[in-house]
Amino acid sequence: MKQHVAILSYFSVGAYDSNTVDENQILSDILTELNISHEIVIWSDHSVNWNRFSLLLFKSTWDYFDFYPEFLAWLDDIKKLGIPTLNNLDVILWNSSKKYLLEIESKGFPVISGMILEKGSHISQEEIATKTKSETWVIKPLVSGGAKKTLKLDRKNWNTHADKIQDWVTEESFLVQPFISEVEEIGEYSLVFFNGKFSHAVLKTPLKNDFRVQHYFGGTIKSIVPSESMLASCQELVQEFTKDCLYVRVDGVEIAGIFYLMELELIEPYLFLAVSDQAINNYKNALADRIV
Predict the structure, then answer these.
(1) Which fold has domain 115-179?
(2) I need a labelling partner for 155 at 20 to 30 A (CA). Which of 76, 78, 125, 205 fits?
(3) What is the pLDDT of residues 262-277, one digit of tens each?
């Protein structure tokens, strides 16, 4: 088959791509420079004939968690067709539920993991406080992104939100994590790796009195040089859990000099390509190594 690559995107309604640089276009420009035939395709577009493509590049499938059953069915269809993907489908599936955080923690890595509220279970603030060893929590769906249905609360205002949380848990599973003050006070670090090699890093800082670091909630982003210890910690995570991946973004926070993982982004991370001078060239080199 003649090489023809699909850049996987989503039907944009402005929910997750406001105040962003169009990284789909950056990726398209890179593939054009590499003389690779390609097009930007919506993953959920039922009119697409996937057999036309020799490779699928996951880039901005930013609504997959809004349509998770459909996304899982689509992944299964692609697997049956035997079309290679970057990142690969096993990694995509593993990373699509935040259960992976508990798996990583179980292997001895510092992780802000929390506890799972299984769908249909009865929630108890006492159990949450005991298992998370915290009095303040962040609650989010087990399958989610973009701070969707994400709530910060503590014992003082538990009764205000308990009924809403119980209603949420009736519909789907949630993750409860201890609130980390360093996120609000300092920010969240993101280190980007291509083909297992460090490329660039940023610090995402939320608005004052907010904990959501996403740029579409007003968070600020600046390029940084990570410390040697932070880079070493992230590199170890990359080597252990993201073998054979074109890209990974390691998100975390530093507490008393130790890097704690908050997310391994392996499906559709925003890569901050316009923030770092070397990012686009690093991305290009990594794509050339894998595709050309």
Answers:
(1) Dna Ligase; domain 1 (3.30.1490)
(2) 205
(3) 999 999 999 999 998 8
